[in-house]
Structures are given as C-alpha cells and as structure tokens.
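User: Please write out a complete single-protein record containing the residue sequence and its fold in token form, without commentary.

AI:
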Amino acid sequence: MSPFFAELAIATNFSFLRGASHAEELVMAAGAHELSAIGITDRNTLAGVVRAHAAAKEAGIRLLVGARLVLQDGFEVIAYPQDREAYGRLTKLLTLGNRRAPKGECHLGMRDVLAYGEGHCFIAMPPAIPGKDFAGNLKLLAEAFSHSVWIGLAPLYRSDDKRRHAVIARLSRETGVPLVATNDVLYHMPNRKPLHDILTCIREHCTLKEAGFRLSANAERHVKSGEEMARLLADWPEALDATQEIVNRCRFSLDELRYEYPADNFSENGTPQELLTRLTWYGAREHFPEGISEKLERTIRHELAIIEEKAYAPYFLTVYDIVREARRLDILCQGRG
C-alpha cells in the first residue's frame, strides 16, 4: 500500500519568475502520481488558486488554498486557512502587505502574521542552512499558534542533505514543532527545468552563461509520488504522515465563497431593495410625466425582480450616488446599456 502524501508547497507561474508551470499542469501531474490532495502556495498571493481549484475539481483531487508568505526579513512560511473566517484573515493580510509596498512587492513582517494568523496551519520553510533568525521566527510562530505549525522538510538533492535534515530534525525536537514532508515544487515535470532556468536569469538580470550557482543544480523540484517521497525521506516517515493531518484540518474550499457587496447604510427606512424600488418608480414618473406604459411597467417590474433575486440593489444604489454626485459637480457622466 502506497503511503499517504500530499504535496503542500507548490508554486505556479503566478509566483512571478519562479514557478515554471501552470496550475492545470501541476494538478495533472498530481493526478498522474495518484496524489489525493495538493496545496497551491504562491509567493504573497492567492492568484494561482482559482485555476487550480477548477482543475482539481475536474480531476477529483482535494485542493488546499494557501499562500507562501515571504516576510521582509527573509523568513518564509506557508499559510493554509482552515475555514472561511481564516481565509478572510489571509486575504486581509495580503492586502495589507500589498498596500504598503510598491507595485509588484508585498511588505509583511512577523507581527502581521501573528495578528492575522488565527485559524491557519503554518509550514515554516527553512533556508538551505537554518540559522538563529529562522529559529527565532519559528519560536514566535509556534508560541502564538500551538499545534498549528510545522517545519517543511524538503530534499535539496545535495551531498549534505542528510546533515541538513539532521539539523532541521534537531530544531524540531528543540522547539516541539513537527516536521512535514514536501518537495517544494516549482514545476510539474523535470523537462520544465530549462524554462525555470530562463525565468531565474530574467529575475537575476543575467545570462545563462553568467548564472552559475544561481541556477538549480538539478531538475528535481517537480511533483513526486508518495512512494518517491517516502524513499527520499525514509528516516522521517512522520513527516509524510503530517501531510494528512494538515489536509484533514484545512477544510476551506473556494466553493464556499459568494459575492458579498460591502455593507453600507443606504437607508434607515427599509432595505436596499426597497429604497431602489422607490427611486426607480420616482425616476420613471419623472421621465414619463404623461404616464408609464404597460410594457414599460412590466419591464421595470421584471428587472427589479431580477435585481432582488441576485441581491444587486446595493450596487445600483452606489452607482446612483456616484451619478448624482457627478451631476452636482458638473462632471460628465454617461452610462452604458
């Protein structure tokens, strides 16, 4: 029987100049390796999860929606919301980071993560050589979110992998933070490595000839099967088991989302729909003082019914306010049919 394994650190091409595969390709590869669940975690963004969600539903694969938070001090941590409320906090966190940074950047610190991190499962992703800074941030995270933090254990396919894994395992014992297995995926198949090299050169502003050690030494950062990950991390079987615990705890799905118009107090004397209805009939009488024809009345009632069914009244009231203010200021304002 093959061991359970879910790949929980996957970057799509929405991790700009880092991920070298489309979300659909990564889902396809996960299906080919018979993975029952995967997680999409692009750098400081949720941009890749929508396409992954559609592809995963078609393939019958559980998708965990997450983001890889890259903080200003270099600490990297994957955040997976466990429910709808936590997803809302994650989107607020990313909005905060984007609004305080120049376009294309996201400025976040550990204080921000601690403030918005309730209800998440976190995977701290150690650098090649974990140092005191990584350990310090890990400790802060674990103290704030006990039993909801893991350390990512990924093979780097280097000669010192066993020593590195031993260092990370010792840090796990010292902090009480368990390990979780991942291949820290950047593309769906090995043959996408040349494209990843080109993306790296564009990001680093160098040629392939000049890139040197800035390029990965191998083409191993692709989706792997549970059997292969169990072989690579044979000394830490508990790290593969941890992927199942995270999958079981993170039940949030994009299917839970519905359009929610921002709340506004349009009127103290009724609902937005009632206010829109009153304004509509008032406007109709203003435009047709000689009387409203039966055909026009049927059309208005029909469209008001659709607006009520779709709960669009707040939107139309916002447009009404914008147009009214534009006319008051003598600003050209025209609509579309």
